[in-house]
Amino acid sequence: MPPPAPPVIHSAEFAFAAALKGQLPPTTLPEIAFGGRSNVGKSSLLNALLERKNLVRTSKAPGATRQINMFRIKTSAPEAELMVVDLPGYGYAARSKTERIGWGTLIEAYLERRESLEALVLLIDIRRGPEEDDRQLVEFWKGARPDKPILLVATKLDKLALSKRKPAMTTIQKACGVRVIGFSAITGDGREELWRALFLALRST
Fold this sequence. Notes:
By secondary structure, the protein is α/β, with parallel strands linked by helices. 33% of the residues lie in helices and 23% in strands. The two termini are 23 Å apart.
């Protein structure tokens, strides 16, 4: 059988945000969180994935997202509704040390304790590969939520020549021990594969 087509996005809208622990209200919808370094292209990926131009704010300055932002998504898939969660980017040195520590605490508390969180998607720039912060987040997730899946997405696929993409993705997968999907917000490459992986993750939990 051919793999299922990506879902039709019926609606995608901002739901709520939190900058401090305990500010997020409970939800009955499954949540999938997207995280990564501040310059990894997360906002562009989410807009491309959800087929919306400006749903998730993009910025030329890395580290623009300073809170957890949640978006309610309605699709044509059997798992019709879910929450897509945009986590603050990490590793941006220009922010103050206090801010970086605060965001780290917020992210860890959400990832470790959020009952409706079903999967984590970690974005890594395919040109740079995983950095220490990325590997630490993978290990943190495996320790905190061993029963929940994690997916790696190699972003900015279009920035590499075709001949270099597979070796770069293999390097990322070996470094983190997690399956990797290549994605380009410019060309749309990887969108269908990522949606299939997301729904498989939801069904496995």
